[in-house]
Fold this protein.
Amino acid sequence: MAFDEDIEVLSLQNDNSKEHVLMEKGNKISDMSPLMEMKNSVANLKIEIQEMEVRIGVLEHTLLKNQLNQGLMTIAKSGSDVTA
C-alpha cells in the first residue's frame, strides 16, 4: 500500500511540474514585450536612416555647388589670362 501511495504522490508531483512548465512556456510565448521593443527599435532606425539621407543630400548639394563654383572660377581665371 505504501508503494501505491508513493507512486500516486510522485505522479501528482510530476503532473504539477508539467503544468508549471507549460504555464511558464505559455507566458513566455504570450509575452509581447520583446517583440514591441524590436518594433520600436526598427521604427527608430527608419527615422535615423531618413535623417541621414537628408544630411547626405545636403552634403552632396554643398559639394557639387563648391565644385561648380571652383570650375567657374577656373574658367574665369583662364579666360582672363587669354584676353590679357
